[in-house]
Amino acid sequence: MPSCEPDFGIYVHWPFCKAKCPYCDFNSHVRHEPVDALSFADALARELAWFGAKTKGRKVDSIFFGGGTPSLMPPEAVGRVLDCIGKLWTLSPDAEVTLEANPTSVEARNFAGYRAAGVNRVSIGVQALADQDLKALGRQHSVAEALAAFRLAARTFPRVSFDLIYARPGQTVAQWRDELSRALAEQQGHMSLYQLTIEEGTRFADLHRAGKLIVPDEAVAAELYDVTQELTAAAGLQAYEVSNHALPGHESRHNLIYWRYGDYAGAGPGAHSRITAGSRRLALATERHPETWRAHVLARGHGMIEETPIETADQAAEYLLMGLRIAEGIDLARYRSLSGRAPSHLAELSEMGLVCVRGDRLVATHAGRRVLNAVIAQLAA
Ligand SMILES: C[S@@+](CC[C@H](N)C(=O)[O-])C[C@H]1O[C@@H](n2cnc3c(N)ncnc32)[C@H](O)[C@@H]1O
Ligand code: SF4
């Protein structure tokens, strides 16, 4: 019988990359000395034990190795972490176990080992289907290498996601139409299609500020977004989230936990968690610097630098921010019970065709998703 308990997930952060991509502001670090992967895996296991004590009795529905580049982890390190999770919690029989992979030929050699360790889903960062664009994005793989890795992953794992970045410098609507069509011919039921964001503190941000990197303007970006919706829908992939498209049943169970504002424990440098403890909801975060994080874990069993109860009004704001990204939207009763009131400007936003109320759920329409931040700001005002 399916359980009615909300899904619970575990996020494991692997903070190392071969090279830093110039657009990326994730907690990723390049090391010129070999990384002692097993010592990091052991530290992850210790921090997970700390979370185990805080979340006793919970059933784990999803595990996600994110990064950084988890496909640089030796399969033995992934196996150690998964064994530890299996000892600390009961795993749901259909638990999703995802690992983010960069598609170089070296990393593809690890795929069979990950599968043997228990990984059943990979998310492959193909990012572009043009070699010169991959170079401009600072990627360490060619298109041919990425496609070979993707096809190998599709043969190795029950589920794979094909991930691309669009609205790249100089990209035209016609080029994206062609590129996305080629990607759609390869995909296996799930695609993450992110618009390039210029993040503060990255090399792209410096170049952008200096006028040396021109990205598509708002009107072109909106057209690129519309083409994305049109082509994925025509292929039967539903936009179950702003940037995520899947055949029915192929949605990422893990990411749905975030968007449904469920509980998850995040282990590893710079990982975040949301955990319900009694009547309180806690926000936790760990030290970002990998070696400092490991030293904290060795000294005190965890790398936490933040453990704060979240006020119910803030929970309502977070729920809105997450929930309106997904096609199923938010449960208005849950929102009211957290915030003590209904969302603001509901009638105006509905009249403008930006949101729609279906029973006791509120969803953003296609037009609303294009201006989602503004819609959320109005609802939360
Ligand atoms: C941080 S990466 C980690 C996985 C893996 N290292 C990779 O590069 O695919 C996760 C996803 O975030 C995307 N991403 C990172 N920075 C981004 C940005 N500035 N704009 C859009 N997508 C971005 C990546 O392209 C990737 O699909
Ligand atoms: S995009 Fe991926 S590979 Fe590139 S620096 Fe960020 S985490 Fe590393």
Q: What report would you give on this structure?
A:
The chain has 381 residues and is an alpha/beta fold. The chain has 16 helices and 15 strands. It has a 9-stranded mixed β-sheet, with helices on both faces. The chain has a 3-stranded antiparallel β-sheet with strand order 10-11-12, with no helix packed on it. Strand 5 (159-166), helix 7 and strand 6 (190-195) form a beta-alpha-beta unit. Helix 1 packs parallel to helix 2 and helix 7 (173-186) runs parallel beside helix 9 (218-234). The protein is globular, with a radius of gyration of 21 Å. It binds S-adenosylmethionine and iron/sulfur cluster. The site of S-adenosylmethionine has 16 residues, from strand 4, strand 5 and strand 6.
Protein traits:
alpha/beta, 381 residues, binds S-adenosylmethionine, 9-stranded mixed beta sheet, binds iron/sulfur cluster, 16 helices
Shape: globular
* Multimer state: single chain
Distinct small molecules: S-adenosylmethionine, iron/sulfur cluster
Q: Which structural class matches the secondary elements?
A: alpha/beta
What is the CA-CA span between the terminal residues? 41 Å
Q: Please compute the radius of gyration using only Cα atoms.
A: 21 Å
Number of helices: 16
Low-confidence stretches: none
- Give the strand tally: 15
**Widest beta sheet: strand line-up:** 7-8-6-5-4-3-2-1-9
Give the helix level as a range of percent. 40-55%
